[in-house]
Amino acid sequence: MEVTVIQNPLERLLGYQLRRASAAMLADLAEALADIGLSVTEMSVLMQIEANSDITQSEIGRILAIKRANMAPMTASLLERGLVAREAADGRSQALRLTDEGRTACAEAGRRIAAHEAKFLSDLVGAERDALIALLSRVWSGEQAKR
Amino acid sequence: MEVTVIQNPLERLLGYQLRRASAAMLADLAEALADIGLSVTEMSVLMQIEANSDITQSEIGRILAIKRANMAPMTASLLERGLVAREAADGRSQALRLTDEGRTACAEAGRRIAAHEAKFLSDLVGAERDALIALLSRVWSGEQAKR
DNA sequence: TATTGTTATACTCTATAACTATA
DNA sequence: TATAGTTATAGAGTATAACAATA
Q: Mean pLDDT over residues A107-123, rounded?
């Protein structure tokens, strides 16, 4: 009897493993945030504002690698939904802050993120987890150096 | 003097590190393959055919998590460009094989991938590299179990 | 002049739905 | 009926270019 075993030549590549692992976590997180009406990117933006009050949308874009042009409609949507407020700062800059509603959404998102992360890290001990994250950080250290 | 240190609260999350590391490698690989006219996805498909002659496009889609509907135009393009040939197999299935030109492109892509991977893995010793890839594989083991 | 924010637009990926052909 | 392949299409996400407002 003849058996053809299908093998995937990409499996030993770091880039491939990163892509698949990243996509799997992204899909799970998107699902976890869906019913509070936040996309993963929107949640990321809210968390930047929470941690850095009065940050500008351009700065958030630089941190998260989102182009200025793409930050505009996202910021507009968060303002319109009452999650974020802004006021004039320097030049054309607008300082962003969370509203009470934004803080509430952020807190709920934080709990869901913690559960989501725990699900994927459950069989790693703390040291392995830290080592993995440190290794990943080195993978894109070139990007980080640009800032 | 007042200094505001901007900090990124996402930095300690596995999901975030995966996304950034994956995006960095993907962009680098896309650039490395650009002048041989292959996208990263096209290269991935060619390598599946090289490693598994007479595979069908549906099977490739299952391995790489590409929907059948999205495999169709990609296969058509690879056929049209003379990189892949096909012949009727079972039912509506079409067995795919690399042409000589496809094999040549695949070999060149393989060399570029090796250089690209080495660039990102250069400061990891072999054991670290293997451990990292094994850890990543566990991150999306849920997806793999579905196959 | 350099930076911020905005608009328009295009391209790639990805997703669903509907259809045909074959076992 | 289940599977393979195709087509059309819609939605993200991301890219560039051009413009106005401000230091």
A: 91
